Amino acid sequence: MSFTNFLYHIVFATKNRLPVITHDVERRVYGLLYSLMKDMGAHVYRIGGMPEHVHIFASIPSTIAIGEFVKELKRKASALIKAENIVNNWGGWQEGYGGFSYSRHDKDTVIEYIKNQKEHHKVKSFIEEYREWLIENGVSPDAPYFPK
User: Fold this and answer.
1) Residue 5, phi then psi, degrees to nearest 5
2) Mean pLDDT split into 10-residue runs, the chain, 148 residues
3) pTM of the full predicted structure?
4) In terms of residue numbers, what domain contains 73?
């Protein structure tokens, strides 16, 4: 029998990083993401974010690649958000995502970080922070997926 314990911090943005996940709909959007992820076999530790991006901390089944998992999650969530008219002028998710792996020893730190998104982003923008994460993870600012 196989066993895995991969903890992923997944980050993705709304199309064109438009701030459409407003306070009045964020719980519905996060709840929808949570339900979809549970249906896909994930264990969700925390979901949070800002009006233009979402942070998810979860473990996913070892039977699916992280890229396929996120692609399917975004596709399903976008379709439901649109069909249920949860977000006004929903344009979908921006292409791509960020994925960072963490040790179980970092779990509480990442959960607290996601809980405090609104406070955190009062001093640092999403793009500033994302660029820092990429650099910390050895990504060159010249890479094609480095945000402009």
Assistant:
1) -145, 70
2) 86 95 97 98 97 96 94 98 94 93 93 88 81 79 70
3) 0.89
4) 7-106
